[in-house]
């Protein structure tokens, strides 16, 4: 898709950027005056430009024409967003979400749900509420398991549950927390069914391939990343190879190129070759599922093919700009999709920067080597400011890793696709081809693991919008300094880069010192030092949960004041022993909702009554209950309804899990709080809720039961495989807590142990690269690396 001339054609790029920015900003607002005013303003600019255009001449005429086209692009995209806004969040569903009412939903899956999956994307087709059925077309994310081992894209499911409305700009309009499992009503037929059968057959084939390469191959070939381990996923991100984890837009070019070459070898007419390419490309998109990068590449490929059919050339930048406008007109909410943004920026980087960078580098090295370096460098430079928003680090070895791994990706993709397509016809040969594809796939995985394990693989950078802007300034200045002609621009750019990098070094050094001396402001889990007892805070998107209150109100109040916590949205009283509820008076009148274990005495009821008088709502906990805290979903794993053999107390402690949802999924710490469960109760919980525990996967944090007593189930801790263990325990306690046996179990699972008796206050947060940042009041801060 190279431009037809060496001069870049940017005439369509500015309207695409203006329209994109306009829709990205305004879809985050509720439909109404703001959005209508923006459309009206764009139309007014368009009309004024048209009037002035009739009187203008020369360069002014071209400028006015460009402004008019920009206004037209923004108007079309905004009108499309307005037309869909009300339908995406119908008033009846918004009301049901606000009132917490149960609804029944029939929906179509927009992703494949694998065995053990408890979260999936779908489009709600109908909603039933109070006996009335409303036909809708609403994108949702469902938190539920399904009633069969797996279900494919296009399958119809039925479920009931409660709704939570997302922000207007989110890709999913609602989160649905299901009551029970989702029932699969029917599988798709036709093309979707055939594609699903091919994917399923290839996944079965890939399961026989060993190691990380076997798990990565389905992602490279057909876009299914279910078998990619969290360790490999984190390594791919750290080494700047995450675009290879699943099918990318480049694969569309490979597929179209192969069809055109084969058509030429068969002496097919150009029209027949182009038609065949479009048909094969459409089948490929259905097979690998329409991810944003695949859609972007497919629209670009079709544009180029039709331009060629008409006997005309197609410049890369205009084709990319057209693809952006077409896709945003179809789905304006792609404007806020990180996958779409990164795909467009990477492609723009290749089109605009790869050639000049390669020519610059060729002065010091052979041209093929310069091009090999210039391509991944251009993509990384273009994407880095946005990547900073996802992970505030600079992948130091990213370009080198891409140079080594990049050439293997198309080989693994093509061979994997061949194996996928021929598996139903010739299983033995498909197995052989899959084994050949396994070698480049394993090479990519090995490169990722090697570079992710090197020291300094991710250099820290400023977080948030400030970090993104700083990265953009450094990138633009560096590119100008390298590519501009000798003179003031090159000199000025070089000086600016040097100044900014010096400022960055100072800021990074200061930030590292601050993190070691002061509590991190971005903590997600805080274990208070309240002596022999438990009081642990969980924070997400400004919402706070407190699990138990410890034995002493003064110590708890001091911890809350220190952390700046004035309001508790959810208080969990796991059970009513004094070391878990003795500090409750410190939060009276400051609690919104209480989730509690079964009371066993009048004093227990008195604790609940005092909280209720303070304005809190009371809910007895039971296994299967779910709810939301900011961007976290919580689920009660224990106690079961009327479990036999246990009295209120330790063994009927509320056991709660937290896991990220929506945009928080990758950056939030998952956790499990085990109360004071003993070994027998832990074993009963594991046996009764094995599927729920298994669905948690390897959690980030476990609050160790009963202050680290020896009455523990090693099998439970092995199943949870937590990376950090939190133990609330008093110094020199008379119980011998924590017991050496549980410390041995935690060491065997690889958990980093934190203890309030030796560490004081402990704060846990994500380091932005898949690791957990552990801050101890009394010890230096280490980092537990890797993981999702």
TrEMBL record:
Compartmental location: Cell membrane
Main location: membrane
Gene3D superfamilies tied to this protein: Ribonuclease Z/Hydroxyacylglutathione hydrolase-like
InterPro entries: ComA-like_MBL, ComEC_N, Competence_DNA_uptake, Metallo-B-lactamas, RibonucZ/Hydroxyglut_hydro
Membrane-spanning residues: 12-28, 34-54, 63-83, 241-263, 270-289, 309-330, 337-357, 369-391, 403-426, 432-452, 464-483, 489-508
Membrane topology label: Multi-pass membrane protein
Statement: the UniProt record of this protein carries the keyword Cell membrane: yes
Pfam family, one: Lactamase_B
GO cellular component, one term: plasma membrane
Transferase in keyword set: no
All residue ranges annotated as the Metallo-beta-lactamase domain in the record: 532-706
UniProt signal peptide: none
Record's keyword terms, sorted: Cell membrane, Membrane, Transmembrane, Transmembrane helix
Protein name: Competence protein ComEC
């Amino acid at each position: 898709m190279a431009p037809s001339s060496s001069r870049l054609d940017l005439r369509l790029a500015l309207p695409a950027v203006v329209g994109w920015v306009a829709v990205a900003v305004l879809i985050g607002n509720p439909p109404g005056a703001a959005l209508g005013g923006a459309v009206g303003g764009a139309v007014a600019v368009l009309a004024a430009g048209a009037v002035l255009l009739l009187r203008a001449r020369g360069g002014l005429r071209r400028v006015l024409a460009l402004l008019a086209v920009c206004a037209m692009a923004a108007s079309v995209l905004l009108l499309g967003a307005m037309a869909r806004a009300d339908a995406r969040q119908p008033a009846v569903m918004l009301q049901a979400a606000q009132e917490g009412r149960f609804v029944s939903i029939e929906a179509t899956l927009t992703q494949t749900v694998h065995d053990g999956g408890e979260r999936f994307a779908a489009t709600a087709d109908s909603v039933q509420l109070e006996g009335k059925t409303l036909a809708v077309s609403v994108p949702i994310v469902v938190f539920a398991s399904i009633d069969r081992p797996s279900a494919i894209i296009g399958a119809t499911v039925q479920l009931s549950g409660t709704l939570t409305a997302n922000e207007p700009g989110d890709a999913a309009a609602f989160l649905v927390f299901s009551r029970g499992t989702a029932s699969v009503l029917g599988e798709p037929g036709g093309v979707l069914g055939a594609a699903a059968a091919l994917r399923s057959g290839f996944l079965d084939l890939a399961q026989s391939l060993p190691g990380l390469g076997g798990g990565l191959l389905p992602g490279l070939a057909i876009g299914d990343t279910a078998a990619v381990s969290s360790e490999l996923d984190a390594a791919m991100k750290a080494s700047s190879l995450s675009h290879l984890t699943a099918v990318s837009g480049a694969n569309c070019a490979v597929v179209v190129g192969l069809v055109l070459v084969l058509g030429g070898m068969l002496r097919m007419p150009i029209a027949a070759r182009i038609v065949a390419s479009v048909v094969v490309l459409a089948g490929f998109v259905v097979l690998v599922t329409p991810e944003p990068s695949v859609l972007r590449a497919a629209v670009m490929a079709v544009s180029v093919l039709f331009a060629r059919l008409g006997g005309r050339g197609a410049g890369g930048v205009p084709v990319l700009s057209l693809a952006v406008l077409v896709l945003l007109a179809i789905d304006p909410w792609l404007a806020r999709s990180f996958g779409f943004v990164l795909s467009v920026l990477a492609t723009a980087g290749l089109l605009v920067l790869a050639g000049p960078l390669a020519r610059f580098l060729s002065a010091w090295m052979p041209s093929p080597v310069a091009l090999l370096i210039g391509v991944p460098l251009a993509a990384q430079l273009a994407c880095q400011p946005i990547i900073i928003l996802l992970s505030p680090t600079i992948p130091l070895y990213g370009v080198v890793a891409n140079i080594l791994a990049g050439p293997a990706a198309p080989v693994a993709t093509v061979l994997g696709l061949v194996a996928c397509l021929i598996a139903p016809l010739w299983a033995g040969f498909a197995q052989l081809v899959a084994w050949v594809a396994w070698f480049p796939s394993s090479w990519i995985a090995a490169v990722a693991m090697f570079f992710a394990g090197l020291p300094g693989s991710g250099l820290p950078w400023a977080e948030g919008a400030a970090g993104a802007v700083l990265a953009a300034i450094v990138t633009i200045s560096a590119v100008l300094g390298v590519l501009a002609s000798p003179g003031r621009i090159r000199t000025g750019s070089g000086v600016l880069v040097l100044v900014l990098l010096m400022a960055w070094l100072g800021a990074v050094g200061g930030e590292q010192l601050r993190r070691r001396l002061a509590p991190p402001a971005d903590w997600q889990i805080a274990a208070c030092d309240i002596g022999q007892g438990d009081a642990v805070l969980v924070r997400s998107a400004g919402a706070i949960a407190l699990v138990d209150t410890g034995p002493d109100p003064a110590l708890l109040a001091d911890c809350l004041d220190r952390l700046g916590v004035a309001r508790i949205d959810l208080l969990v009283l796991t059970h009513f022993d004094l070391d878990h509820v003795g500090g409750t008076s410190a939060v009276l009148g400051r609690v919104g909702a209480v989730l509690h274990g079964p009371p066993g005495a009048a004093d227990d009821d008195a604790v609940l009554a005092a909280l209720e008088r303070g304005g809190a709502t009371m809910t007895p906990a039971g296994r299967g209950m779910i709810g939301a805290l900011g961007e976290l979903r919580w689920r009660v794993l224990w106690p079961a309804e009327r479990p036999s053999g246990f009295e209120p107390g330790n063994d009927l402690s509320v056991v709660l899990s937290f896991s990220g949802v929506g945009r928080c999924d990758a950056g939030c710490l998952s956790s499990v709080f085990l109360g004071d469960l003993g070994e027998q109760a832990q074993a009963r919980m594991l046996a009764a809720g094995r599927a729920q525990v298994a669905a948690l996967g390897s959690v980030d944090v476990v609050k160790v039961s009963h202050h680290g007593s020896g009455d523990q189930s090693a099998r439970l801790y092995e199943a949870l495989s937590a990376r950090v263990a939190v133990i609330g325990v008093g110094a020199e306690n008379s119980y011998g807590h924590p017991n050496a046996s549980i410390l041995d179990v935690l060491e065997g699972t690889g958990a980093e142990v934190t203890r309030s008796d030796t560490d004081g206050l402990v704060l846990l947060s994500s380091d932005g690269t898949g690791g957990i940042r552990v801050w101890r009041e009394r010890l230096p801060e280490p980092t537990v690396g890797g993981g999702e």
